[in-house]
């Protein structure tokens, strides 16, 4: 008879996310994961499969949570510009606190690019959903007169996505929240009506 699991799966997965975010896939060893997750080797394999399957599940969970929180912040305000500002500032705040400086999504893109189809499928899905939400909000902002009428919604959505990535990379390099807030101000200025 199999022994019952003696750990919380979600807690263990969150610890794996933090470990992969800090060290990347290649830089994270199985012993590092076991120590961080506070589980045994057999529990890792029985519950999550191998290291690659655990990484993909961690990347999916991290991406869903991160994108969900960012987009929720963006749509929480009636004002399009204020919503975009709140989303970027929330992202910047997260990037400069605790383990937020390490980003599993950025690691996945920089470590794998498009060379690993399983990883690229996760990052492409998250990217597509984020761009779609940004583009929708930008179109709304242009129609309301809150954003510059000359903006191309697709280009502006890609600009915001690159801004999010840049905020995480800058934070990882040691940029403070104040520095990131300045980046957000410049980004908002690029979108606002003139």
TrEMBL record:
Query: Has keyword Nuclease?
Result: no
| Keywords associated with the record | DNA-binding, Transcription, Transcription regulation
Q: Which residues form the HTH tetR-type domain?
A: 6-66
Keyword Transcription regulation belongs to the record:
yes
Q: Which domain of life is it from?
A: Bacteria
Which residue spans does the record list as DNA-binding? 29-48
Q: Which Gene3D superfamilies match?
A: Homeodomain-like (1.10.10.60), Tetracycline Repressor, domain 2 (1.10.357.10)
PANTHER family tied to this protein: HTH-TYPE TRANSCRIPTIONAL REGULATOR YJDC (PTHR47506:SF1), TRANSCRIPTIONAL REGULATORY PROTEIN (PTHR47506)
Q: What is this protein called?
A: AcrR family transcriptional regulator
- This protein's species is Luteibacter jiangsuensis
């Amino acid at each position: 008879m199999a022994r019952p699991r003696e750990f919380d799966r979600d807690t263990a997965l969150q610890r794996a996310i933090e470990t992969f975010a800090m060290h990347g896939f290649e830089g994270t060893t199985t012993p590092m994961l076991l120590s961080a997750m506070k589980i045994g080797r057999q529990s890792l394999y029985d519950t999550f499969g191998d290291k690659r399957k655990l990484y993909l599940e961690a990347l999916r969970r991290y991406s869903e949570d991160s994108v969900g929180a960012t987009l929720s912040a963006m749509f929480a305000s009636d004002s399009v510009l204020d919503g975009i500002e709140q989303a970027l500032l929330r992202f910047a705040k997260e990037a400069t606190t605790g383990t937020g400086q390490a980003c599993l999504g950025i690691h996945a893109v920089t470590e794998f690019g498009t060379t690993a189809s399983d990883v690229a499928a996760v990052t492409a899905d998250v990217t597509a959903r984020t761009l779609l939400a940004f583009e929708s909000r930008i179109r709304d902002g242009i129609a309301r007169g809150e954003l510059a009428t000359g903006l191309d919604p697709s280009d502006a959505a890609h600009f915001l996505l690159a801004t999010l990535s840049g905020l995480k990379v800058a934070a990882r390099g040691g940029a403070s929240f104040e520095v990131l807030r300045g980046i957000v101000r410049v980004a908002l200025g690029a979108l606002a009506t003139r």
